[in-house]
Design brief:
There is one protein chain. This protein is an alpha/beta fold. Helix content is about 45%, strand content about 15%. It has 10 helices and 9 strands. The protein has helices spanning about 20-30, 40-45, 55-65, 85-90, 90-95, 120-135, 155-175, 180-185, 190-195, 205-220; strands at about 1-5, 15, 35-40, 75, 100-105, 140-145, 180, 200, 205. It has a 5-stranded parallel beta sheet, with helices on both faces. A two-stranded antiparallel sheet has the order 1-2. Strands 8-9 form a two-stranded antiparallel ribbon. Helix 3 packs across helix 10 (about 205-220).
């Protein structure tokens, strides 16, 4: 946790949210095997559009093995089409029964089907999900923004993704939760590159998952260009 500059009248400004690297440092340094739970939608699941390539969760698992954490368990229960409400309704089955030490959430693309009127409900449900995980476990809960999308993506994603991304960032700030901002990284990248990263519309292919894994591993503080996972090429 870091503290910002002094606020008005010399008072200390509110503490800034801990970044993923700081929040996860105790998990990565734990002397006992840890459980990493990844819950979310089809991007988390990394099925079909990778054509057999490893998704960002699998690439992170490989990095854990490279770091010597060979007995850590990495559980991926992402389900295609799921929204934040699906995660909440199935939380025991997809997450809590594994007694996780770290939980990483990846939703938002399908939630845009709620259009502009659904943003507030999305934020409310997201807050309740994070709170419930925290109350049921000692896990570090990490939020993620979705990846970017091509013009061929679904209309509801194209029109409303910005608003849902903004809401995820707000939830992270309100709950003092670490955030991996994939969307910001994609926005900072030449959109022409995205054509090589996406298999269809808003679904990352193997290259897109490598890009997401790189962003996540950097945020987690475990990225290395010299590691096998770091030498994977990205267009």
């Amino acid at each position: 946790m870091t503290v910002g500059p002094a606020g008005p009248a010399g008072q200390a400004a509110p503490a800034a949210p801990a970044g993923p690297a700081d929040a996860l440092a105790p998990v990565l340094a734990a002397p006992t095997p840890q459980v990493w739970s990844f819950i979310g939608d089809s991007v988390t699941a990394a099925s079909w559009h990778t054509w057999g390539g490893r998704g960002f969760v699998e690439l992170f698992h490989e990095r854990l093995r490279e770091l010597g954490r060979t007995t850590d368990g990495v559980v991926n229960t992402g389900v295609s089409g799921w929204r934040v409400t699906d995660l909440a309704e199935n939380l025991d089955a997809i997450c809590l029964r594994y007694r996780p030490d770290a939980v990483t959430i990846g939703v938002g693309l399908n939630d845009t089907k709620g259009l502009v009127d659904g943003v507030d409900a999305f934020g409310h449900n997201y807050r309740e999900l994070v709170t419930r995980i925290r109350e049921a476990s000692d896990a570090v809960v990490v939020l993620q923004t979705p990846n970017g999308t091509l013009p061929t993506g679904p209309e509801h994603v194209l029109d409303h993704l910005d608003a849902y991304v903004a809401e995820i960032r707000t939830v992270a700030g309100d709950l003092d939760a670490p955030l991996v901002d994939h969307y910001a990284q994609w926005q900072a990248t030449d959109p022409n590159t995205w054509y090589h990263w996406l298999g269809h519309g808003c679904h990352p292919n193997a290259y897109g998952h490598r890009a997401m894994a790189r962003t996540m591993m950097r945020a987690f503080g475990v990225w290395s260009e010299d590691a096998r996972s770091g030498r994977l090429t990205i267009p």
